[in-house]
Each structure stands twice: as C-alpha cells, then as structure tokens.
C-alpha cells in the first residue's frame, strides 16, 4: 500500500552536498529537508531499505566547516525528471541536535513571516 506523507519540507534553491560519513565521498545533493527526513538527488539509484551513514558539511557562524553526522534509511528511489539523476527519500529515526538546528535555521531563513517583512 502506498503511503502518503504530509510532512512539511523545505525546498533548497542551492543544494548542499551529502557525503558518505566513512569514505568522505559525495553521494549527492540535498533536495529538501524536514525533521523526519530528506530528499537526496544523486547520479545513481540507492538501495531501498538500506541504512546509510551520512554527513553534511555546513559553514558555521565561526567561519569554520561543521559536520552533521546522521543515519538515514532510504524509503524509495526513482529516476528524476532530469536524465541521469535519481531522487531518493530518506527517513531519520533519531536526528541529532545539529540536524534539527539546521532544519530550524533553514525554516527560519526561507520563511516569509509578516514580522520579517518591511513595507
């Protein structure tokens, strides 16, 4: 049975690279993100039901590169509308605090709240 998910996700106009945590090789790009999961855009299809040990490298407020390490399980993988690319949906059972902080920061950055708008 197909599962319909209604999780708020935030589209990213510029993609962050996602790395294999142990080999440090890029696996693809972060397409969107939520507290419960993410979309990975890659050049290869990924193993559905496989658990992957991933890393995001994000710039910190101190100007240094910070690593966000987490485990994610691939729920589905299918060809993207762009030839030669695949979209894979991941779930995170226990996202680390740094991942949660990133999601919240991106949500704040991409939100259009009336309190942040100038007239």
What is the overall shape? globular
Write the CATH fold name: Thrombin, subunit H
Distance between the termini: 48 Å
Strand order across the largest sheet: 1-2-3-6-5-4
> Major sheet: size, sense and barrel closure?
6 strands, antiparallel, barrel
In CATH terms, the superfamily is predicted glycosyltransferase like domains
Which residues form runs of ≥5 with pLDDT under 50?
none
Number of helices: 1
Strand/helix succession: EEEEEEH
Domain count = 1
Number of DSSP E strands:
6
Radius of gyration: 15 Å
Describe the structure.
This protein is mainly β. It has one domain (11-108): predicted glycosyltransferase like domains (Thrombin, subunit H). It is 12% helix and 46% strand. It contains one helix and six strands, in the order ββββββα. The protein has one helix at 97-110, and strands at 10-20, 26-33, 37-42, 51-59, 65-79, 86-91. It has a six-stranded antiparallel barrel. The mean pLDDT is 84. This is PilZ domain-containing protein. Residues 3-91 form the PilZ domain. One of its GO terms (molecular function) is cyclic-di-GMP binding. It comes from Pseudomonas duriflava.
Quick structural overview:
With 119 residues, this protein is mainly β. Helices cover 12% and strands 46% of the residues.
Which terms would index this structure?
119 residues, mainly beta, Thrombin, subunit H, 6 strands, globular
Layout: helices, strands, pairs:
Blueprint: E1 10-20, E2 26-33, E3 37-42, E4 51-59, E5 65-79, E6 86-91, H1 97-110
Antiparallel strand pairs: 1-2, 1-4, 2-3, 3-6, 4-5, 5-6
């Amino acid at each position: 049975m197909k599962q319909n998910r209604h999780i708020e996700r935030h589209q990213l106009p510029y993609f962050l690279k996602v790395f294999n945590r142990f080999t440090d090789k890029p696996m693809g790009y972060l397409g969107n993100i939520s507290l419960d999961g993410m979309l990975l855009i890659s050049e290869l299809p990924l193993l559905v039901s496989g658990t992957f040990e991933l890393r995001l490298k994000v710039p910190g407020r101190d100007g240094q590169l910070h690593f966000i390490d987490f485990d994610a399980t691939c729920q589905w993988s299918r060809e993207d509308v762009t030839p030669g690319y695949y979209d894979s949906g991941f779930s995170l059972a226990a996202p680390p605090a740094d991942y949660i902080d990133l999601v919240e920061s991106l949500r704040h950055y991409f939100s259009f709240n009336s309190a942040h708008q100038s007239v």
